[in-house]
Structure formats: structure tokens, C-alpha cells
Write a structure and sequence with these properties.
single chain; 545 residues; alpha+beta; 5-stranded antiparallel beta sheet; 4-stranded antiparallel beta sheet; 9 helices; 33 strands; 16% helix; globular; disordered N terminus; disordered C terminus
């Protein structure tokens, strides 16, 4: 099924490029009356029958193409390639990894040392065998994450989901002994959010009974649960509203001994409200609704904002996309009057990646996009504010933070590009240096290809950056079959990616790949057909203002 899908996408797109513009207009013209209105009921027998019929009709055309068998075989080989990267989780002095393959369908949670992890073939030691656990419990467990107690990360809550559903079960696990804790914390199946308060206390938001879940189906009541007591005896410490998305507790601690407890309620899909735990109880934090508490380092709270903000009593305005810092003592003393300072402010060319922030023992790691080029920086708290050092990353790549250590300055970056296989680099935040740790073998021949970054101009004059991946020496004469993709929304950017399917089934056959970022909705048909690359200047994204 995987191979059929992959090959089908390539063939279908190739056929679409050759279609006349009038076909696009026909497909998007409004029908009157709407004879497809019955498809609004997506689970109705009539809608499902329509989907099956369209699937069968499409498969017949695609599988009848003379290239299908070859492309399907090549796609299957890529899908079954065993040379995946083992992404690290640094816990205390060891490296952990959740690994799945044909022999471990449910997965194994395993560990090794940092020195051994750097070798081509690390000697992994199994910590949890989820296949064996599933067989023992007669339950199709899917491993989610490990919620571990800081510092030390010895005691963890292993999160298990039956078949991958949203609801999960949590069981306390001791990483040092490699065993589930006898008479330890166990949270039965529920949609739930859990945070460690200390070694003997949990903050739990879950289904406590009728009327304790939001209309969205998530918990909004947080209780404090002590070790050795019945779950039913847990004491309520925070309550959101039934109309919220949900609510949870967040505990933040830094290596310098500072700690902060927050309660967050998701007011809607975009906005949240935080309350700070104080000796007098929770108090409202006067941050903007579209913002995130991103961490705690050296007694400073990190806040990223997604809207312009002028704090109460302050004269200046902080702009959307900024990362701010607030002194923890000031916040706890007066959470209604915040005094932030700037760590990072966006420019017309560079902005912070959503979620692109992580902390080592004493440094902040930040990833950005500069004209859609991946960048990474190390920030260090100083008496005057923050200092910044750029990390040496290549051009035309995407950069993501794979993991950071909370006991030292070690971190890992994931780097990939259109012609650059996914790679893991180990770094030292104290020296701002990088070293290649592991790289995935190439999945296609890219020796004859190059990557260019060009710009188009929208009707309002906005420059729209886009990447073009093509054979060396290609002529812009309108004869190049082009696969074009673009997206813009929800602060998600289309960054360089390494795709064995596109490389093997498209680039190796002389195709051109174009990837762009846009700023909203609009008709993409004209831009698609202009992507025949008569000249790159004719690639204009209209109606995306």
C-alpha cells in the first residue's frame, strides 16, 4: 500500500502538470445546484461509496501506466530502507531511543552511553520491550513518551496507548533498575496530562467523572496526588472552564535550582491563559493570550509571543514572534505587572521557528528561518542580558533541535536538505561547535543536481522565496516537467526536505522540484502552470496577500 501511494502521487502530479489551465478552471468552478452536497456527511454510506469508486477509478489509471511497476518497486525499496537514524534522548549520562522495526513492531526503549552512541553501530541495551509488554498484558500497546522527574530523570511515567488512541495509561518506571516501580504511580486509561511536582507528588488533569471534561473532550480540572494514597483522594488545585480546550499543570526547573509551577488553560485553539502557583494560591499571569511559556533558565522565564504586546505599566511594545525573558522573582512577586526584556526579535527576513527552542544545563538553543534558510544559535545569559553565537550550519537546509542535555552542554541538531540526507550533529553549547554524529545513506543519485533559491513577487510587492531543485545546466525553456508545492498557514513553513521518493522517482528522471512558502489562501492554478519554468521570473504567486 505504501509503495502504491508513493508512486501514484508522483504519476498523478506529473499528469496534472501537463493539463491545460482550462481543466483547472473546470474543476474549481462552482456547481449550481451542488450535486455533491451529500459528501458533507463524510461517514455516510453514500460518501464512502463515492470515495471507494474514485479510489478504484484512479488506481486503474495509475496502475495501468507503463512506469507504475518500476516506480512502485523503487518506492517500496525506499520505504523498507533499514538505515534510519536513531534519534537520541539524553537522560542523565546515557542516551535513550525508542526503536521500531520488523522485529519490534510495538518498539523497544533502549539505551547506551554517549561515547558508544557516537560509534557507527552502538551497542544498545533494551530497557522496555513493548512487544513483550503487549503480549503480557494482552493489549496492543503503543509507546508514547516518558515523563521523567528532574533532576536525574531516574523516575519516569511510561505513557502507553491502546492501539494509538488519545487516551493513555501511565505507569511509573525506574530507569536505574530497568523495572516498573512496585506499588508506584499508576494512572488508568483516560485523556490526561500529568506533571511531576516532586518525587512523591503528581499534578494530574484527567477524567474525574461526569462534568469534568471540556466540550472538546479534554480535562479541565487539575488535582494534586500524593504517593501511597488512592487516586480518588487527590486534592483539586486548579479548575479551568468547561468551554476551554483543556487545562494542565506545568512544572519548570532549571539547573541552578529555580522552580516554577504554572497552570495553563487553553481558552481556544490559539490562545491560552497561565496562572502562577504562589504560597497564596494560583495567580493570573498578565501575559498576552497568544503566547507560550517556553522554559526556565538561570532564574529567567522565557516567553514567546504570537501577537504584539504592551505590558501593563510599560511604554514599549514587543512585536509578534519575539522571545522574551522575565526575572522569576519579579514574576512571583507581582504576576500582574510583568517586566520583560528581548532575547530575540524577528526581522523582515528572519523569524523564530515555532517550537525551535531548547535548554542545556546553562545555555539556550534557538533555531530560526532566515529567508527560509535554517539557522541555529546559542544564547547565554549574562548580567547585561543575553549574548548570542551562531552555529556553523550549511546553506539550503532545514535545522531542527533533536535533543538537549539538562545535565551538561551537549545537544543534537537534525539537519537535512533537498540533496542532503538527514544527519545528526552533536554540539557543545559552551563552545558553539558541531560535529557529525550520524548520517543516513543517500537514497538517490544527486551528483548531477543543484539547489537554487529564487524569489517571485506577489501583487502587493511581497517577495516570495522558493527553492528550485534541478539538473545542472538546465535551460529555462518551458520543456522541464515541474513538480511544484507551496503552503502558508498556522506558522508552518515549507523548509528544505530530503525525500527519497521525489529524488528517485522524479529528479532522477529529469524532473524539476519547486517548493515555496506563501502567506494565505488563493487560487494556486495559475502559479502551478507558470511553473513550467520558461524563466524563473514568470513564477508569480498572485492573490496570496
Amino acid at each position: 500500500m505504501h509503495s502504491k501511494f508513493s508512486a501514484s502521487v508522483i504519476l498523478f502530479v506529473a499528469a496534472s502538470i501537463a493539463a491545460p489551465l482550462s481543466l483547472y478552471a473546470q474543476q474549481t468552478a462552482p456547481a449550481d445546484p451542488d450535486k455533491y452536497l451529500y459528501l458533507e456527511d463524510v461517514s455516510s454510506p453514500a460518501a464512502l461509496a463515492w470515495v471507494k469508486n474514485e479510489d478504484d477509478r484512479t488506481a486503474k489509471v495509475i496502475e495501468g501506466d507503463p512506469h507504475f511497476a518500476q516506480y512502485a518497486a523503487e518506492a517500496l525499496k525506499i520505504a523498507e530502507d533499514p538505515n534510519r537514524l536513531a534519534f537520541p534522548e539524553q537522560r542523565d549520562a546515557d542516551i535513550y531511543n525508542l526503536w521500531r522495526d520488523a522485529q519490534h513492531v510495538h518498539g523497544i526503549y533502549r539505551k547506551t552511553t554517549l561515547a558508544d552512541y557516537m560509534k557507527p553501530n552502538p551497542a544498545w541495551q533494551t530497557v522496555i520491550d513493548y512487544d513483550a509488554l503487549a503480549a503480557q498484558d494482552k493489549m496492543s500497546w503503543v509507546a508514547k513518551d516518558m515523563k521523567c522527574l528532574y533532576p536525574g530523570d531516574r523516575l519516569c511515567l511510561a505513557t502507553l496507548s491502546a492501539g494509538g488512541e488519545d487516551a493513555d495509561t501511565l505507569r511509573e518506571f525506574d530507569l536505574k533498575t530497568g523495572q516498573f516501580v512496585t506499588n508506584g504511580f499508576v494512572l488508568p486509561r483516560s485523556k490526561q496530562e500529568v506533571a511531576w511536582a516532586d518525587a512523591n507528588t503528581l499534578y494530574v488533569a484527567r477524567d474525574w467523572g461526569p462534568g469534568t471534561m471540556t466540550k472538546s473532550g479534554y480535562p479541565y480540572i487539575v488535582k494534586e496526588w500524593k504517593r501511597g494514597t488512592p487516586l480518588e483522594s487527590a486534592k483539586e488545585v486548579y479548575r479551568g472552564k468547561e468551554t476551554d480546550i483543556g487545562a494542565e499543570a506545568i512544572t519548570l526547573k532549571d539547573a541552578q535550582g529555580d522552580r516554577l509551577t504554572l497552570f495553563e488553560r487553553g481558552v481556544d485553539f490559539f490562545s491560552s491563559e497561565y496562572e502562577v502557583q504562589t504560597p497564596a494560591g494560583p495567580k493570573l499571569l498578565a501575559e498576552p493570550g497568544k503566547s507560550d511559556i517556553s522554559g526556565l533558565l538561570s532564574g529567567r522565564i522565557l516567553l514567546s509571543i504570537d501577537e504584539d504586546w504592551t505590558p501593563a505599566g510599560q511604554g514599549g511594545t514587543f512585536h509578534q514572534g519575539s522571545l522574551l525573558s522575565m526575572d522569576l522573582k519579579d514574576v512571583l512577586r507581582d504576576p500582574a505587572h510583568l517586566k520583560p526584556s528581548v532575547v530575540f526579535a524577528p526581522t523582515s527576513e528572519e523569524f523564530m521557528i515555532k517550537g525551535g527552542l531548547a535548554l542545556t544545563h546553562s545555555h539556550l538553543l534557538l533555531t530560526t528561518l532566515n529567508h527560509v534558510q535554517g539557522r541555529a544559535y546559542v544564547y547565554t545569559p549574562t548580567t547585561a542580558g543575553w549574548s548570542r553565537t551562531a552555529l556553523p550550519v550549511p546553506q539550503n537546509v532545514a535545522v531542527d533541535i533533536a535533543d538537549t542535555s539538562n545535565t551538561d552542554e551537549t545537544f543534537f541538531l537534525s539537519i537535512e536538505g533537498f540533496l542532503t540526507p538527514s544527519s545528526l550533529f552533536v554540539g557543545d553549547a559552551s563552545t558553539a561547535t558541531l560535529k557529525l554524529a550520524h548520517s543516513r545513506p543517500a537514497l538517490f543519485d544527486a551528483d548531477n543536481d543543484v539547489v537554487e533559491q529564487l524569489d517571485a513577487t506577489s501583487k502587493d510587492g511581497t517577495r516570495v522565496p522558493y527553492f528550485v531543485v534541478h539538473a545542472k545546466g538546465m535551460k529555462y525553456d518551458g520543456s522541464n516537467p515541474t513538480l511544484l508545492t507551496a503552503y502558508g498557514g498556522f506558522q508552518v513553513s515549507e523548509t528544505p526536505l530530503y525525500s527519497g521518493y521525489i529524488g528517485k522517482l522524479w529528479l532522477e528522471h529529469g524532473g524539476v522540484f519547486v517548493q515555496a512558502n506563501i502567506r494565505g489562501g488563493g487560487e494556486f492554478g495559475p502559479a502551478w502552470h507558470e511553473a513550467g519554468l520558461k524563466t524563473h521570473r514568470q513564477l508569480v504567486f498572485d492573490d496570496f496577500a
